[in-house]
């Protein structure tokens, strides 16, 4: 394969302008974005992305999970495509870059290849995966999970949001249910550009993170049941307090993660308290525990220890308890050849870099099971993400996109 020259680069200003234009759709209340999956705002962002892709000479395909695939033809019609992309959906209080940089960085890659009149043997496909965030419809990376066969499409269509609306109905409502069979596409390789969502690169003063592994995770949805009762007139020794149970189980999640150091994390993120009144002892609490580690043995151990401890707490307090998995994937080791392509690209461009383990889940973690895969990361200010204050610099975004350009162009094989 021919490696591109060091002057082979994207248009950083154009990439930045594109990011800012997309950020106008679904603005948040504090400078970020609220473009949750399968909302009207998501539909508007998708339409804008499609218009940009078609203007760049790509053809757009959409599968039955709403995944978008913008294809730039290759010189060899029989060569499997090199895929690149991420997601356009955001958290309710999300930033302008999480996921979006990977999709629009892929678009900029296509635009730059066009500008430079560079052809590749393999087609290049820019992908927008549906419902990566998993905020509105759990679990995260839902559509890429269906794509590789981890979830069934029927099961995914039945996922409900907090208002009881289903994924399938909302996908149809916004007009982005395609007719292409999910998972039918075959890939030569897949690359995903993403902000780090952590503080390591910025603290180390590195331009690029070469992602070698991804953490596995368990999301455990816990339902604790007690008895609603008046907070003022119910004696302390006669209470069946579901809120107290959650408090102790939250502490247990923290202690169990601490006992599995290094490279293990755990916390309670989402919770709903019922009836959620200031003068009523909670009779029911539903909350989610998030455990992660790149070590499968640690990940398994944390789940087992937590379930045992939560049961012990519930029995002590006279509470009912159910624990169900609402999300899971094993730790990921990314493809050595694709990882090397990313590392070599950073070297060729004279960028400082370091190996990273991704602390967050990404669509690449699923796609790695069906195609050689790697990730490129750039720093974000203070490591902040899933927050409207999420920020990257124009130079960081351009650096990540340039490494992506080189890795993808080399893997897709420049011709002529």
Strand content: 15-25%
What's the Cα radius of gyration? 23 Å
SSE class: alpha+beta
Biggest sheet record? 9 strands, mixed
Quick one: how many beta strands? 17
How far do the termini sit from each other? Answer: 12 Å
> Helical stretch count?
12
The pLDDT mean sits at 96
Shape: elongated
Q: Unreliable stretches, pLDDT < 50, 5 or more residues?
A: none
What percent of the residues sit in helical stretches (DSSP H or I)?
Answer: 25-40%
| Sequence of secondary-structure elements | HHEEEHEEHHHEHEEEHEEEHEEHEHEHE
Give the topology.
Blueprint: H1 12-22, H2 40-55, E1 59-62, E2 68-72, E3 82-86, H3 100-115, E4 119-120, E5 124-128, H4 142-148, H5 153-157, H6 167-173, E6 189-195, H7 200-204, E7 208-214, E8 216-225, E9 229-230, H8 242-258, E10 265-274, E11 280-281, E12 284-293, H9 296-317, E13 320-329, E14 332-333, H10 336-348, E15 353-358, H11 363-367, E16 373-378, H12 394-412, E17 414-415
Parallel strand pairs: 3-5, 3-6, 6-16, 7-15
Antiparallel strand pairs: 1-2, 2-5, 4-17, 7-14, 7-16, 8-12, 8-13, 9-11, 10-12
Helix pairs in contact: 1-3, 1-12, 3-12, 8-9, 10-12
